[in-house]
Amino acid sequence: MNELETLKDKFAKTSDKNKIALIDEIVEKGEENYQFLRDFLLSNPEEVSPLKGKIYQVLKHSNHPENETFLNQHFPQGIVQLSSEKNIDYSELQELLIAKKYQEADSLTRVKLCELAGETAIRRKWVYFTEVEKFPETDLLTIDTLWQTYSEGKFGYQIQRQLWLSLGKDYTQLWTKLKWKSGNKWTKYPQEFIWDLSAPIGHLPLSNQLRGVRVMDALLSHPAWQK
């Protein structure tokens, strides 16, 4: 068994988290290995995961004609189905996250939350916690799936929720864990936030805590995460 075959065998037997770490290594062994990734992406095409998101991003950014043809044929907009109960278009958010433009995606996410809340929230450019409570589960799950899928599973509301629960719902500890605060000092927007995958788990998307914790509490307590 040569080095590449050993690598593919290891890929087949390990966890999704470890598979993600192996993808770049597989590609480095030669362009012919794109076929291996294309085949994996087509296996169970309805399944969406951070692993498949990573593979999609690698193929999308490869500047390889076969990969471009393959993605246009099978996944023209991305691998996440963009479901909305309010006919909101999440295609631009998917495009930004595929491109790893996390700062732009973060800003657009807040816009989409205002769209979910309605015209009054759109005009004021932020949402009340009472509006968050009424968000459709379908839409929140779409937004969260997009963030998780295209961040190698590092970002998203459910990731933040897991941390929050693990800390006994202690927001003071959560802000520190997310690196939204250090001691008594809030992290300055945008320059002190980290807009790439070197950020801590759950660092994005952001939520403005200067008005208190009620919006974040409504997001992390939303019934969508009980599904």
Automatic annotation (TrEMBL):
<dbReference type="InterPro" id="IPR032192">
    <property type="entry name" value="GUN4_N"/>
</dbReference>
<dbReference type="InterPro" id="IPR037215">
    <property type="entry name" value="GUN4-like_sf"/>
</dbReference>
<feature type="domain" description="GUN4-like">
    <location>
        <begin position="84"/>
        <end position="223"/>
    </location>
</feature>
<dbReference type="InterPro" id="IPR016024">
    <property type="entry name" value="ARM-type_fold"/>
</dbReference>
<feature type="domain" description="GUN4 N-terminal ARM-like repeat">
    <location>
        <begin position="2"/>
        <end position="76"/>
    </location>
</feature>
<dbReference type="Pfam" id="PF05419">
    <property type="entry name" value="GUN4"/>
</dbReference>
<dbReference type="GO" id="GO:0046906">
    <property type="term" value="F:tetrapyrrole binding"/>
</dbReference>
<dbReference type="Pfam" id="PF16416">
    <property type="entry name" value="GUN4_N"/>
</dbReference>
<dbReference type="InterPro" id="IPR008629">
    <property type="entry name" value="GUN4-like"/>
</dbReference>
<dbReference type="GO" id="GO:0030288">
    <property type="term" value="C:outer membrane-bounded periplasmic space"/>
</dbReference>
<protein>
    <submittedName>
        <fullName>GUN4 domain protein</fullName>
    </submittedName>
</protein>
